[in-house]
Specification:
By secondary structure, the protein is mostly helical. It has 3 helices and no strands.
Length: 124
């Protein structure tokens, strides 16, 4: 980590900045990403080998059931979202049309009222 702080102080030109950035990225990869990846791979392999050794005692229905229920849940949710989106769009379009109609009628009535008011003033 002392090298990283030293490299941060050296950043003066574009070439130095690019080199520094690459070194910091490489050190970050080697110090955190790669060990985490290797740890995950090791855990997956060890758990898989333990499951493979105990495969005769595994109830496959108990293994497949959560996957099937989650898949069905996702399908139902997706269908509901699509249907709701279509229904909501239709409702929104209908409401917009109604608002335009009401506003147009209101504006026409306001114009009629103003014309009637002007006629009364002009008739006096």
């Amino acid at each position: 980590y002392t090298e990283i702080s030293e490299f941060r102080q050296i950043r003066h030109g574009s070439l130095e900045m690019k080199v520094t950035k690459e070194i910091v990225t490489s050190l970050n990869f080697l110090n955190s990403t790669l060990p985490s990846l290797l740890e995950g791979i090791f855990a997956f392999v060890s758990d898989s080998s333990r499951l493979y050794r105990k495969r005769s005692r595994i109830d496959w229905l108990a293994f497949v059931y959560p996957i099937l229920t989650h898949s069905m849940y996702r399908v139902v949710t997706l269908i509901q979202q699509r249907l709701y989106t279509k229904k909501k769009k239709k409702e929104t379009d209908r409401q917009k049309h109604e608002i335009r109609t009401y506003m147009g009628d209101a504006m026409q009535r306001l114009i009629d009222i103003q014309i009637n008011n002007l006629q009364e003033v002009q008739l006096r």
